[in-house]
Amino acid sequence: MNMQERIDDLRAQHQNLEKMLDYENDRQRLDDIHISDLKKQKLAIKDEIASLETQA
User: What is the number of other CB atoms lying within 10 angstroms of the CB of residue 42?
Assistant: First the structure.
């Protein structure tokens, strides 16, 4: 997998996490721990994308 494919894959994962967060936030019973975990994953992916883009 080349660097651009990796970045595209990470962007897709980031978008999927965003959809999951939207779903969790729309639920009547919020799971704060799950939401926090999703946000951490999303931030880690965003950081990795930024790192890869600076290397490209």
Answer: 18
Residue ranges in the chain modelled with pLDDT below 50: none
> Which residue, among 43, 47, 51, 52, has the nearest Cα to 17 in the 3D structure?
43
Closest CA to 3 of 11, 21, 38: 11
Name the residue with tokens 């729309």.
Answer: 26
Q: Where are the domains of the chain?
A: 3-55
CA distance 10 to 38: 14
User: What is the rounded distance in angstroms from the CA atom of residue 38 to the CA atom of residue 47?
Assistant: 14
pLDDT of residue 30: 83
CB atoms within 10 A of CB 18: 12
